[in-house]
Amino acid sequence: MKRVLLIWSASLVLATAWAGPGHDHGDEAAPATAGAPQRLPDGSVYLPKPAQRQLGLRTLAVSAAELPRSQELQGQVVMDPNAGGPVQAAQSGRLLAPPQGLPTLGQRVQRGQLLGYVEPLAGALERSAQAAQLAEWRAALRLAEQRAQRLQELADTVPRREIEAAQMEVESLRARMAALGQGLSGREALRAPVSGVIASAHAAAGQIVEARELLFEVVDPQRLRIEALAYDIALANDIGAAFVADGAAQPLRFLGAGSRLREQALPLNFMGVNGTSSGLALGQSVRVVVQSRRTVKGHAVPAQALMKNPSNQTIVWVKQAPERFVPRVVQAQALDGARVAITQGLNDGDRVVIQSATLLNQVR
């Protein structure tokens, strides 16, 4: 009996020796750190007051209101035809720099300012033919001048109309020679069509250019326009306000709509309020939020309050208790470049997290 008890006691000692310190294989969960931000089993987040101040958390109490319906369109920054224009070569030739040099990108120019020259190029046969024509007219001019001089000396016996005809022939030959000489050695001056800045430059001294080739683009950066495409044709008659959604929201003024579809969409033309636009570049793609005169009932919150949950659903965080926040699945529509309208998922009086919601959404 004593042997059996000794064997049983030794087996207990050996069994407990298999699990040393730090190697407990029990099912008991480790306790959470007290006072630390954590995601609770129901999906809500416990966030103590010190952590809220550290993250810069801000909330907003919302209430339902009649908000304008809105639609987001894809647009592009285009040139105002009255405040910009291209500089092109009217003929083929060699590009020459003016005394002050060719303009560079971003350089401000005035209307009519000289930007460069285009010296026409002619082949050997063409130049030979022009030189032969010039020599022929030069000889004819000498003969015409001698004849006009003789007639002038015989003015008392020669009719006045013959003298005048001889003088007109001399003037005609001189004008034709001047025109042909200008064609051989003349050059085309390139001038700025409007006052503004050089938006694009495709020119180098000595470059061979073709007729109608684009060399410079001059635009006024404060008078750019935005062209957006609307697939709902009725939208053109129901625009109440418009905004640029990219960056700082800029209000836009609706100028008008086209009467011809482009890629099955109707082009809409906008410009900045008071005719100004800042922070935009020619050719830039932007998002335009168009508000219609019709309204929808919802809660207005900043766009930065919208988050995504693991199921890729749109959510906002609502403050349920002083240190507890719960996610709410919502449906949203754009209002302008900075706000959205929550049409489903919120109640009046809910306090929605509008600042540092991204950091709150990352608490695990």
Automatic annotation (TrEMBL):
Example GO biological process: copper ion export
Disulfide bond found in the keyword field: no
Coiled-coil residues: 134-183
Domain Multidrug resistance protein MdtA-like C-terminal permuted SH3: residue ranges: 301-355
Listed SUPFAM superfamilies: HlyD-like secretion proteins (SSF111369)
Designated name of the protein: HlyD family efflux transporter periplasmic adaptor subunit
UniProt xrefs under InterPro entries: MdtA-like_C, MFP_Cation_Efflux
A Gene Ontology term for the protein's cellular component: cell envelope
Region (Disordered) location: 19-42
Organism per entry: Inhella proteolytica
Keywords: Coiled coil, Signal, Transport
Origin superkingdom: Bacteria
